[in-house]
Amino acid sequence: MKWLKRFMRFNGGFKNIIILMVITFASLLLLQRLMEMSRHVHVIGYSVFLDKVENAEVKQVYVDGQEVRGLLKDNTLFQTIVPENGVDWQFLRTKGIDFALSNQSDYSYYWYMMLLILLIVIFGTIWFMVKRSQGMGSGGNIFSMGKSKARMFMPSTIKETFASVAGAEEAKEELHDIIDYLRNPKKYRRLGAKMTRGVLLIGEPGNGKTLLARAVAGEANCPFFSVSGSDFIEVFVGVGAARVRDLFLQARRHAPSIIFIDEIDAVGRHRGSGLGGGHDEREQTLNQLLTEMDGFLQMNESPVIVIAATNRPDVLDKALLRPGRFDRQVHVPFPDLKSREAILKVHADMVKMDPSVDLHKIARGTPGFSGADLANLINESAIEASKQESELINVHHLENARDKILLGKEVKSIMLTEEDKKIIAYHESGHALARLLMPETTSPLHKVTIIPRGKALGVTHSMPEREKYITSKEEMEAEVISALGGRAAEEIIFQRLTTGAYSDFKAATDIVRKMVCNYGMVPEELGTILYVQDQSQYQYSEKTSEKIDAAVRAIMENCYKRCIQMFKDNRDKLDLLATTLLEKETMYASEIYELLNIEPRTEHTFS
Ligand code: ADP
Ligand code: ZN
C-alpha cells in the first residue's frame, strides 16, 4: 500500500495528472463525435432501402438488430430501421452485397456508456477526496485521518499585531515576554531560564483571544498553527492522539512557531469525567498533548509555544495547568468602557464614519458588549448606512444597529390594539420614571421606545456614566425597583396583571438572589454566608433553602411596595410620560427631562 499512499499524497503533480486525463478523455470523445458528424448520414425508409438493393446501388450493409447502416456505391452513408419480425438477410447475398449481422442490439454502445459513467464516477470521487483533504489543511491526503487539521499561516500572511488589539492592556503585557522569547530564545537560555511552553487565554467568546494569539505570532514574526480542540475528536480511538503528534511535528519543523488551540476544553476536560462514549479517545488525545508539551524542549532547539483558549478553565484537567504546560494564564475579560472606546475606534477606522460621532458615548451605551459585538455594531451600522445610501455612518445608524443587536429587528408587522399600546406605554414609562425618581442610585436614562423589536414590545435603555466596580445594596435595590416599575405602573393604572413583565421579573429575581446568596445583603438569621448551590462545597440544608426563599420574597415585596408608592405620589408624571410616549413612540432622555421638568443629570444621548 505504501506506493499507493505515496502516489495518492496530494501534490501538484497528482492534480495535474487528473486534469490531463480528463481533458484527453473529453477531447477524444469530441473528436469521435466530430468525425461521425463530418460524414453526413442519410436516413432512408425501409422501402427505399429495398429499392436501392434491388437497383444494385448498395455496396455494404451492417445489420445491428433492427438498425441497418450501410454504404452506397456513390460512397454516401445511409441508415434505416427494419421491421421487427426478422428479415431473411440472405437475399443480400444474391445481390452480391457485402454484409454483416449482429443481434446484440446496441450492445457495444451500452458498454461504452457504462464505461464512461464508471470513469466519471471514479474521477469524480478522487477529485472530491483530493479537494476535501486539501480543505483539511496542510499536507492533507485522502488517507489523512491521523493528520492534524491545523491551518498554518506563514508570518507574511499574518497582518495582526498588538496595534490591532485595542484595550486588553494586561493581557498584552503578559504576552510580551513570550514574544521576546520567541524572537530571541538565547537570551533566556543563557542563564538556564526555562521559559513557559503554554499560555492559557481565558475569556468569554468574542473578547479577542484568537486575535491576541495571532497578534503574538504577528509580533514575533513566526508561523501560526491554528486548530480547534474539537478537531482532535473523532469516533476512532487513537486518531486524536495521532493528530496531536502530527501537529507538534509540523510546528517543530517550522520552529520558532505558535500553536493555537481554540476551545481546548473539548480535549482538556478532567480525565475520567467522560460524558458518554468516546471519552477513551479524548483521554488518549489529552495524554498525547501532555506528552508533547513535556517533550518538545531541548537545548538549542527553537521554541514552540502553545497558546490555548477557553471560557471554561474550571473544567480543565489539572495536569494541563502544571508547570511546564499551560502554567501561564492570561485573562481576556469583557472590555471596560475605555477598552470599548478603543475597540470601536479600531473598527471605525476601517469604515467611513462621520467624524462628529462621539465613540466615547457609543462605548457608554454598550456595556457588556464583547469585542466581537462591537466589531459587529460598526459593521451593522455600515450596512444600515449603505441601505440608506448615506455618505457617512452617523449616530442614528449606530443607535439602530445597537438596538438590532441587543433586541432583534424592528417588527413592523405586529398588530397591537390601542389598549395593548397603552399598556406598553405605561409599562415602559414605569421603568423610565423609576430611574428618573431615583437619580442617586440608578444609571441615567437613555431612551424609551414602544416600537416592538425582536421579542420585546417596548424597551427602556439606560446608559451607565462610567464603569462600575462596586455596587451598593441601595443601587441593587434601585435596579430591582426600576425592573419592577413596568408591572407596578400597569397595576396602578389598569388594575390588572399582564404577561408582559416576565423578563423584568427574571432580571429582578436574579439581582435579589445575588443580594441574598452571594453578597450577604440579607436578614439577620441568614448571616453573611455564601450560598451558591451549583458548587458542591457550598451545599446547604432544606431549612436554609426555605429561609433564602423567604428572604428573596421579602426583598422583592418591599421593592415592589416602594415602587407602587413612588408612582402613586407621582401619578401626574406617569400619566404625562405615558400619553406623550404613546404619541411619539420613541423618546430620548433629554426630551423626557424637559417634558417632566426634571433636572437633567448628564448627557444621555449618542448625538
Ligand atoms: P475569541 O477568540 O475570544 O472568541 P476573537 O479573537 O475571535 O474572539 O474576536 C472576534 C473579533 O472581535 C475579532 O476578529 C475582532 O474583530 C473583534 N475584537 C475582539 N476583541 C478585540 C479587540 N480587543 N480589539 C479589536 N477588535 C477586537
Ligand atoms: Zn418591562
Protein architecture, described:
The protein has 607 residues and is an alpha/beta fold. The chain folds into five domains: 2-35 and 109-144, no CATH class; 39-102, Signal recognition particle alu RNA binding heterodimer, srp9/1; 151-331, P-loop containing nucleotide triphosphate hydrolases (Rossmann fold), CATH 3.40.50.300; 337-407, Helicase, Ruva Protein, domain 3, CATH 1.10.8; 418-596, Up-down Bundle (Methane Monooxygenase Hydroxylase, Chain G, domain 1). Helix content is 50%, strand content 11%. It contains 21 helices and 14 strands. The chain has helices at 2-8, 12-38, 46-54, 90-94, 107-135, 169-183, 185-189, 209-220, 239-253, 265-268, 279-295, 337-348, 359-364, 371-387, 395-407, 418-437, 473-494, 502-517, 542-569, 571-584, 589-596; strands at residues 41-43, 58-64, 67-72, 77-81, 98-102, 151-153, 198-202, 224-228, 257-262, 304-310, 328-331, 445-449, 459-462, 586-588. The strands form three sheets. The protein has a six-stranded mixed β-sheet with strand order 6-8-9-10-7-11, sandwiched between helices. Helix 9 (239-253) runs parallel beside helix 11 (279-295). It is elongated, with a radius of gyration of 38 Å. Zinc ion binds at residues 427, 431, 486, 501, 504.
